[in-house]
Write a sequence for this structure.
């Protein structure tokens, strides 16, 4: 989950989700899209921290908080759907313990298309104005072609005695509104639907319905977190599953659901990004012990210090599990263990030519050392070096070192990135103005630091504000950061 910034909505990665903190009102919103015989619809899942709202005593002597909410879906100037309502907490006898979240779920029937979605939240019992945030949303369920719904994360589920707004396929689903799983969360439960498989698979045949986790950075499949089952084709197939993530290390991941025909051809798929925090999880050294390295390029690296440096330089492209090894066990690992890890690392990226994959990456490590290394950091340890190694060279790189009002900075733009990201940008700056270590200040890419106040922080050398709500600056003579950020792709 990206950092929460005061008084603004922060888009959370590629999964539809927003962090909101406005005048101490904190909330998180996510959504999923579904199809039905009556047409597509979208569900919104809103979670509000009770300790961030103001409770007032009512006529019953009980305490209750109220949030004013407005959601709209627009196409151009036309409002296609909207809902304005009040969200009330349950009544409390006192406000001594309000360390909980209260959840709201809404449904909007809305046809296929692209929409400008806007949400406004305001605490009814506070004087702060509502602050809007808008986001582009696409709904696309092609007729007669198999497709998945959105993936809904689920906190809990029970058999439904009677349909409610929480009911799907005979179950009442309580949504898990976040895309972040802290250490205390030992399992992931999710729900999704697959449509129109009966249009492409004969009734006397079966297809493969699978789900698995993959590393977000490298798209490497985690085979220990996967399941496959054979299904009969239906107009609507339901997948409600639980997965243990107790031993899943900290990192960025995708939950992937797939449908494949008997020829193992991909028919439909859906991905959902999430983050895991689990510092206790470590790579199993016993698993490494079974890795055969005889007559491999890894065995030929016989200097422990050299090999340890090679492994450290691979950190920017490592998975969460691999990073956990590099951070701790690597420091005390013997030569053979490091050789086994190093060989396994590059086999996972290229089974046919792991040595070639390593040599190609090594050339990039050399490039970032030459271009981004500092007196105190190696190139791959810097933010610019890490981004370069992870995503490749940017399509445009705008550099300013002598603007009157701003710290030295660079803005990188990528036209296309992994996981179907397009037109993503990175802002780096050098607040110390000495070491040439440009720190990542802001990015709109999935899984990266998102800082709506980046322009204010960039100008902090001459300008500061105590108003945490402020996110914009008035351009001074000679400042180009807004122009560089708005460069077309």
């Amino acid at each position: 989950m990206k950092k929460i910034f005061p008084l603004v909505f922060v888009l959370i990665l590629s999964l539809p989700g927003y962090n909101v903190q406005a005048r101490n009102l904190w909330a998180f919103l996510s959504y999923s899209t579904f199809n039905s015989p009556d047409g597509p619809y979208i569900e919104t899942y809103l979670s509000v921290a009770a300790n961030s709202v103001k409770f007032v005593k009512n006529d019953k002597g009980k305490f209750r908080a109220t949030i004013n909410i407005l959601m709209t879906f627009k196409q151009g100037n036309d409002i296609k759907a909207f809902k304005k309502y009040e969200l009330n907490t349950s009544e409390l006898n006192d406000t001594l313990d309000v360390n909980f979240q209260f959840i709201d779920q809404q449904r909007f029937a809305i046809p296929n298309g692209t929409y400008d979605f806007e949400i406004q939240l305001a605490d009814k019992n506070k004087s702060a104005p509502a602050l809007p945030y808008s986001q582009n949303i696409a709904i696309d369920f092609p007729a007669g072609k198999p497709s998945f719904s959105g993936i809904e994360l689920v906190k809990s589920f029970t058999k439904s005695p009677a349909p409610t707004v929480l009911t799907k396929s005979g179950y009442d689903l309580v949504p898990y509104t976040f895309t972040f799983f802290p250490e205390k969360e030992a399992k992931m439960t999710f729900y999704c639907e697959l449509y129109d498989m009966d249009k492409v698979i004969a009734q006397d045949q079966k297809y493969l319905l699978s789900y698995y986790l993959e590393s977000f950075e490298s798209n490497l499949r985690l085979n220990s977190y996967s399941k496959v089952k054979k299904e009969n084709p239906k107009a609507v197939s339901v997948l409600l599953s639980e997965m243990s993530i107790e031993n899943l290390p900290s990192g960025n991941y995708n939950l992937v659901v797939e449908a494949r025909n008997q020829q193992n051809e991909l028919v439909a798929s859906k991905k959902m990004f999430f983050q895991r925090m689990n510092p206790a999880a470590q790579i199993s050294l016993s698993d490494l012990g079974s890795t055969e390295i005889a007559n491999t390029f890894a065995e030929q690296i016989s200097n422990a210090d050299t090999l340890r440096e090679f492994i450290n330089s691979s950190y920017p492209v490592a998975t969460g599990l691999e990073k956990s090894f590099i951070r701790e066990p690597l420091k005390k690992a013997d030569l053979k263990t490091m050789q086994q890890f190093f060989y396994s690392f590059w086999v996972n990226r290229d089974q046919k030519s792991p040595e070639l994959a390593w040599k190609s990456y090594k050339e990039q490590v050399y490039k970032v050392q030459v271009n981004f290394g500092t007196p105190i950091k190696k190139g791959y340890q810097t933010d610019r070096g890490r981004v370069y190694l992870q995503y490749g060279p940017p399509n445009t790189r705008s550099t300013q070192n002598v603007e009157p009002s701003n710290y030295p900075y660079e803005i990188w733009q990528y036209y296309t990135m992994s996981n179907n990201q397009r037109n993503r940008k990175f802002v780096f700056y050098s607040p110390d103005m000495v070491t040439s270590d440009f720190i990542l200040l802001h990015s709109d890419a999935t899984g990266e630091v998102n800082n709506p106040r980046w322009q204010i922080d960039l100008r902090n050398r001459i300008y500061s504000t105590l108003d945490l709500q402020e996110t914009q600056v008035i351009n001074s003579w000679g400042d180009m950061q807004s122009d560089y950020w708005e460069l077309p792709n």
